Amino acid sequence: DEIEKGGYPHFMLKEIFEQPRAVADCLRGRLNVENHSVQLGGLTDVIDRLAAADRLIIAGCGTSWHAGLVGEYLFEHLARLPVEVEYASEFRYREPLISEDDVMLVISQSGETADTLAALRTAKEHGALALGVCNVVGSTIARDTDAGVYTHAGPEIGVASTKAFTTQVSVLVMMAILLGQKRGTIDKEYAARLIRELNDIPGKIEKILDQSDSVKRMAELFTYAPNFLYLGRTYNFPVALEGALKLKEISYIHAEGYPAAEMKHGPIALIDAMMPVVVIAATDHTNDKMISNIEEVKARKGRIIAITGAENKEVIDLAEFSCPIPETEDCLSPLLTSIPLQLLSYYIAVNRGCDVDQPRNLAKSVTVE
Ligand code: AGP
């Protein structure tokens, strides 16, 4: 165990720090910065059918479902393809309306999650093309899908998914660019810029990891908070959900993730001086709205932790603590904003003496209903 942890006290921390390499491995051989193109060998035989699809249904559980939500924004934005994101566990028990013109994309790190596998089989029974994004090569889901893309993140041992999420999102970005180019919905210059920016993501993750000590210090101040609220908009709404899930899983602190604008429809009632609010403000065109959300929280004495661009002075000045992230394109920001949230939950869980790699009641892959 100690050797496998490579000098880190926990697998989770090792896997958080492996992300520059995991994302680079995921992108390797698939991005061509000079030609502004993406090659995903696993999709070659199905790309025409995918490009002609009426609708993309994305299904998964937990963190993989959160990656799927980022996928919804990506496919709509870059490929103008209608998308529905489903909890695999609900989808299988509904009477879903699926046709041969639909494509089902299942996302699973392990490739063995029972509900995700059942959702996949339901879609196949209705004649939909079945695609997968999996990490474990040769897993049941990888074998049962018609085609797919591996994340190549390497083994993930910690129960809390970290590098699985960032590599899943990396694959979804590449798929959405490829599909946007095929469908003619993505501007040439913009595609070229995204490919260049995506190629730079591993280095930017590295820069965030270099600041882990400041996240550690921040974690000390919030270790005994009984509740946390995470707020994000657009691409960073799923990151808010993911940040809250990470904290719940390993530190047993109650946490909720919300789209920031929904705060006034309920959760605002929870805010007082005891409530840390993590604001993920890294999406340019919603920045003004996020600033007013922050002001609403502050007016109720909530404590703001901001994950935001290093240049976003207005947000940084309003926040009690901030974790600056390097600038990137909005749609790539989840690849960066998720990192400090992983570190925050890790350090809080360690401070609380929790078993980070094997949290109570949880299994790495849920192979039963
Ligand atoms: C993530 O931190 C969780 N442990 C869990 O939600 C997980 O993402 C979910 O069970 C799905 O697993 P999969 O990706 O292997 O299908």
TrEMBL record:
- Quote the protein name from its UniProt record: Glutamine--fructose-6-phosphate aminotransferase [isomerizing]
Subunit details:
Homodimer.
Q: Which reaction does it catalyse?
A: D-fructose 6-phosphate + L-glutamine = D-glucosamine 6-phosphate + L-glutamate
Provide any one GO MF term from the record. carbohydrate derivative binding
Organism of provenance: Fodinibius sediminis
Q: What does this protein do?
A: Catalyzes the first step in hexosamine metabolism, converting fructose-6P into glucosamine-6P using glutamine as a nitrogen source.
- What's the encoding gene here? glmS
Q: What top-tier enzyme class does this entry carry?
A: transferase
List GO BP terms, alphabetically. Answer: amino sugar biosynthetic process; carbohydrate metabolic process; fructose 6-phosphate metabolic process; protein N-linked glycosylation; UDP-N-acetylglucosamine metabolic process
Which residues does UniProt mark as catalytic?
A: K364
